[in-house]
Amino acid sequence: MLQKEYMKLPLRVKKRCEYRVNIVFMGTPAFAVPSLEALLAGGYKVVGVITQPDRPQGRKRILTPTPVKEAALRHGLPVLQPQKMRAPEAVEELAALCPDLIVTAAYGQILPKAVLDLPKLGCLNVHGSLLPTYRGGAPIQRSIINGEKETGVTLMYMAEGLDTGDMIEKVVVPIEDEDNSGTMFEKLSVAGAKLLMEQLPLILNGTAKRIPQNDAEASYAPNLSREDERIDWTASSRDIFNRVRGLVPFSGAFTLWNDEVFKIWSIAKPSGSASSSDVAPGTVLDLSAQGIEVKTGDGSVWLTRVQPAGKKAMEASEFIRGGVMKKGTVLS
After folding, report:
1. What angle do CA 311, 316, 322 make, to 5 degrees?
2. 10 Å Cβ neighbour count for 200?
3. CA–CA distances in Å: residue 203 to residues 157, 245, 255
4. pLDDT at res. 12
5. What pLDDT is stored for residue 20 in this prediction?
6. H or E segment to which residue 253 belongs
7. By the 8 A CB rule, do 147 and 242 touch?
8. Which residue has the higher pLDDT, 217 or 57?
9. Measured in Å, how far apart are the chain's first and last C-alpha atoms?
10. Residue 59: what pLDDT?
11. Less Cβ around it within 10 Å: N or C end of the chain?
């Protein structure tokens, strides 16, 4: 802990602090769980876990703990869930854990300077991209949507800017056509945990690399909006295929059918052959056991798993058997 930050702490907090390698872990989704589990399996002293507050989930809006909270409670770790990490009381609660090192992975809040300055060994972040590209909150989804062939994980020191800190090490992970955001989250979470464990001994003994980022090469991956989920049928088949993959299994993509949301959860890989039809993009060309063929800007795609408004997700072949969608229908 930096001396200037230590001197600001209340006396009751100072009395509890000892200069040991205490690690506080900060993370929220399933992506972060392998890193937490790796720290514990490696024998490191995790003195507390900070995660986002429980949120309502599902149609019944049941208050649900984050995956990181569930993992922390399984191991009997103290859990803090501040609404805003920059609140003075949140910083004080964190300081009471006396962290020598903070490790974050997809925590979901920007850490204030008061937190960044707290641990004497700094704050690390397991970031799901090959920095300086795809800084921000949705690097995995954006890399798939943008058609990247590879992504990876960067272990970095945190700074006040958005993912601007010095890099320690990276690992590259290919993106296959069969991948979606769900499979890439799993691959990158495991790769990130492994990278963290490889580099942590070097960080603790002061020999880890510090590689400044080249801001001129930076790109950004802002959190996804509702508009990002909407399919533009004038786009190429490959772009539409990538968009759906980038949104599955979380929000899914959508179009409009009969003025209602029609969700798309899976699209067959485009074959590369352009459709000869001269109808408008978004027009349903065929309905068969293969799925729903829809005209795109340069050909067509087959929708293989869909979800009409008010219904559960289903295979397109099952939906077609209902006979409610016809050839020539235009999805808008």
Report:
1. 65
2. 21
3. 10, 36, 48
4. 52
5. 61
6. strand 253-257
7. yes
8. 217
9. 56
10. 74
11. C
Tell me, what DSSP letter sits at residue 176?
-
54-58, 109-113, 121-125, 278-282, range with the lowest pLDDT: 54-58
CA-closest candidate to residue 22, choices 96, 92, 99: 99
Two tokens at 252?
């899914």
In this model, does residue 112 exceed pLDDT 80?
yes
Residue 75 has pLDDT above 80, yes or no: yes
Res. 291: pLDDT tops 90: yes
Least confident of 7-21, 65-79, 293-307: 7-21
Q: What is the DSSP string of 179-240?
A: --HHHHHHHHHHHHHHHHHHHHHHHHTT----B---GGG--B-PPP-GGGGB--TTS-HHHH
* Rounded-to-5 percentages of helix, strand, coil across the chain: 30, 25, 45
The average confidence (pLDDT) of the chain is: 92
Residue 225, burial from CB neighbour count under 10 angstroms (0-12, 13-18, 19+):
exposed
Please count the other Cβ atoms lying within 10 Å of the Cβ belonging to residue 41. Answer: 11
Q: Which long-range contacts (CB under 8 A, 24 or more apart) does 284-289 make?
A: 284/325, 284/326, 284/327, 284/328, 284/329, 284/330, 284/331, 285/327, 286/327, 287/320, 287/325, 287/326, 287/327, 288/317, 288/320, 289/317
Distance from C-alpha of 256 to C-alpha of 263, rounded to nearest angstrom: 8
- Domains of the chain, start order: 3-217 (3.40.50.170), 226-321 (3.10.25.10)
The count of other CB atoms within 10 Å of the CB of residue 161 is 12
3-state SS assignment for residue 128: coil
Q: What sections of 220-311 are H helices per DSSP?
A: 237-247
Q: What is the pLDDT of residue 10?
A: 55
DSSP 23-76: EEEEE-SGGGHHHHHHHHHTT--EEEEE-PPPEEETTTTEEE--HHHHHHHHTT
CA distance 54 to 170: 32
The token pair at 309 is 């408004």
